[in-house]
Q: What sequence folds into this?
């Protein structure tokens, strides 16, 4: 049995039946964030020096660039999903759609910049 009226479902006021999937995906990204952040802290702590050249050499290694890219994807996905829930819970007028579009554009833009930066260093492009 569906909750709400047909008009409510059209307006986005009814159940979209996506809650369990969203919850599970949010938990998966939280777990991957924890794992990858621990990797990042340990990996950086093991560095003999933190100067620009050393850190650039460290990030240019493929075994470092790949987990960094995965960390960026996981963190930005988790960030977007968490703020999406806040917007959906507390924004109840038409501005909700605008807020969700802006949130998606913001996270996509910053995530793309971060991934581009990692790839630029990892592939050895000149600064």
A:
């Amino acid at each position: 049995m569906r909750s709400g009226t047909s008009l409510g479902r059209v307006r986005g006021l009814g159940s979209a039946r996506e809650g369990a999937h969203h919850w599970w995906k949010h938990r998966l990204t939280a777990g991957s964030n924890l794992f990858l952040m621990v990797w990042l802290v340990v990996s950086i702590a093991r560095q003999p020096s933190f100067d620009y050249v050393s850190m650039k050499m460290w990030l240019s290694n493929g075994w470092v660039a790949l987990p960094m890219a995965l960390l960026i994807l996981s963190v930005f996905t988790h960030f977007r999903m968490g703020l999406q829930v806040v917007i959906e819970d507390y924004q109840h007028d038409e501005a909700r759609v605008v807020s969700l579009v802006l949130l998606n554009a913001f996270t996509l833009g910053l995530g793309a910049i971060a991934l581009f930066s990692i790839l630029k260093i990892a592939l050895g492009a000149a600064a």
